[in-house]
Amino acid sequence: MKLLADRLLIPAVAAAFAAFSGCVTVDEEAMSAIAALARGDDAAAIAWSSELADKSHYSRNLGLVEAGRVNLLAGSYGEATRRFRAAVDSAVERSETAPKMKLSDWGNTALSSTITDDRTREYYLPPYEINLALEYGIIAQLLAGLREDALVDARLAVYVQDTLAETCGADLAKEPDGASASSRSIVEAQSASLDEMIAATRNSWENPALWWLTGILFEANGELDMAWQSYRKAAAIRPDNPYFAADAARSGGSASPRADSARLVVFYDQGFVPMRESLEIPIPLYTGFSVQIPKYPTVPFGENNVSVAGSSGAKAAALAVSVRSLAARDLKEQMPGIVARNVTRAVAQAGAQAAVNASGNEYAQLGMFLFNVVVSACRSADTRSWRTLPSSQQVWCDDGMKPGVYAVSVSVNGRTITAQVPLAAGETRVLWIADAGSVVRGASAAAGPVGAPGMYLNGKEINK
After folding, report:
1. 147 vs 191 pLDDT, higher one
2. How many distinct structural domains can be found in the chain?
3. Which helix (DSSP H) or strand (DSSP E) does residue 156 occupy?
4. Beta partners for 223?
5. Closest Cα to residue 214, out of 229, 228, 230?
6. In this predicted structure, what is the pLDDT of residue 462?
7. Residue 102 — left, alpha, or beta (φ > 0 → left; ψ -120 to 50 → alpha)?
8. Which CATH number is 189's domain given?
9. Domain limits at 268?
10. Which of 135, 124, 140, 196 lies closest to 160 in space, CA to CA?
11. Per-residue pLDDT tens for 12-31?
12. CA 248 to CA 242: how far, in whole Å?
């Protein structure tokens, strides 16, 4: 009898472990990489992100954007450009006629992976991460001296954001079909806990900083019609940002900067976006059953007080995009599907256990019990998200600076960061600063000279 029991139990337990053989959590590795970036150890973070991009089966797309961001922080702008381009290409099909968004990437079958857990599902970039990959890809291209490539991706960014507006709309979460009272309560409780974090954004995909950046590039290239459209969209999303509002107000005509002055634009990245955690919630289906869902820590966050002094006195920067709010809203939109999949798995486990119990075969009962124990022990929430993003991004602009070399001072909560920035007549220059707390990184690059060749407004060339 013992031999028979072993023959029944060993395959059951082996099957359970086999089902989870592909489950790899990136939480600990990501935490180590972020800690390495915070202390200036770029090599360790590059090794982690490269392995995630090149060797991970389920998280390759995530690895591409992590590798892009880490290489950008490390100053490897060419490699950052390559990684971001691969990530964007995985979400956007480029053809000879027009690009096409791969919307199926986001749907990814609501009830797939019901046997194991969400960590065995391939990671696809959610819309807000696609927009941020475009933004940082453009910044990496500018810093690498690839201005024409940056303009190409600026046009792609306009298409992507317009497509998201048509497809996602207000992206209101939908209740899963046939949801039980337990699943509804889980969705409601988690949604309520995210409400404070999502207050700084209207939708889970909008990135006004990307709209503004495309406007800057178009204006610097003399494409005023395109620039005004981008500026207006940035201001519509964040009407409280005075820099967006000022550029949107210039829709009547004159280019900026003037031929005898220069324009300096600053993008300031604050810290890192919060990391998701795994939350276990018991459900009344069968003794010992529970679901694991991702959550964000309930730690209050505040924006840094940032001001920039260029050619004159210090002037406050303004919030452009709250990445943590986008991430929280995206999680809220995903929550019905996450809960539906996890409850379905628990119901399947409970049903299998009940069926075996009804058979009266105590060895089969024990085998199924051990299978469920292993499954429950291995299961965890899918907490994957783009971890090396900043918590938020603030912007500043001065479009009337005289040519010369400036020691631009960025004051953050009383701490001063100084960057040497050269400005030529008629130039628009982008200064990007990433502040991880103990280590500050940054660089500047020309977005393009104004007035060469030709300035166009309403289809007509205007002289400057």
Report:
1. 147
2. 1
3. helix 147-168
4. 456
5. 230
6. 36
7. beta
8. 1.25.40.10
9. 2-462
10. 135
11. 444 444 444 444 445 788 89
12. 10
